[in-house]
Amino acid sequence: MSSSTAKRLILYRFDRPPVEATVHADAYLLAAGIELMLLGGNLQIIDYNSVKALCFAAEGAPADLFTAQISFERRPKTAGLWTSFRFRDDDVLEGILPHNLLDWPTQGYFLTPPRSNAFRQRVFLPRQAIRETALLGLVGKATPLESKIGKKVEVDRARQLSMFD
């Protein structure tokens, strides 16, 4: 059984003012668009082409993702790929992407924005909203594969067939 928690967010669109909404945590990125519920109770599927960004935020968060602190003042300390995104309307936003490329959904990118706090936790950017991107730096390093797998298994030479030597 999946979780029933809903995440609060601010929806930024290219042609309209920002709107507060909620999404189901596990099933809001659909093939047709983003399924969300506006605070008035209307369930909608918004096409990816009209979405600029989804900012996961606490209740009462200001809609200032593209006006306040769009870039890092110094080199970020959070591990990941420090990236800059330019949108179709020429707005720019920097953020940190995870090292693991498998964590990136096919519909877009999840990033940690500058000055991440309860009001600006994570941001989802649809691929259709982005005109260009630039990698500004690599912060930290990914965990080596050997440490994830564990120690190597010792081979018993007496039982090993000679053709594998």
What does this molecule look like?
This protein is mainly beta and 165 residues long. The protein has one domain. The chain has one helix spanning 145-149; strands spanning 6-13, 19-24, 34-38, 43-46, 51-56, 80-87, 92-97, 108-111, 122-126, 130-139. It has a seven-stranded antiparallel beta sheet with strand order 4-3-2-1-5-9-8, with no helix packed on it. It has a three-stranded antiparallel beta sheet with strand order 7-6-10, with no helix packed on it. The mean pLDDT is 83.
Ends distance:
49 Å
Strand content: 35-45%
Total number of beta strands = 10
Helix content: under 10%
Average pLDDT number: 83
**What does the radius of gyration come to?**
21 Å
Helix-strand makeup class: mainly beta
Shape: globular
Low-confidence stretches: none
* Strand line-up of the largest beta sheet: 4-3-2-1-5-9-8
Number of discrete helical segments: 1
Biggest sheet layout: 7 strands, antiparallel
Question: What are its keywords?
Answer:
165 residues, mainly beta, 7-stranded antiparallel beta sheet, 3-stranded antiparallel beta sheet, 1 helix
In short:
This protein is mainly beta. The protein has one domain (6-59, 67-141). The protein has one helix and ten strands, in the order E-E-E-E-E-E-E-E-E-E-H.
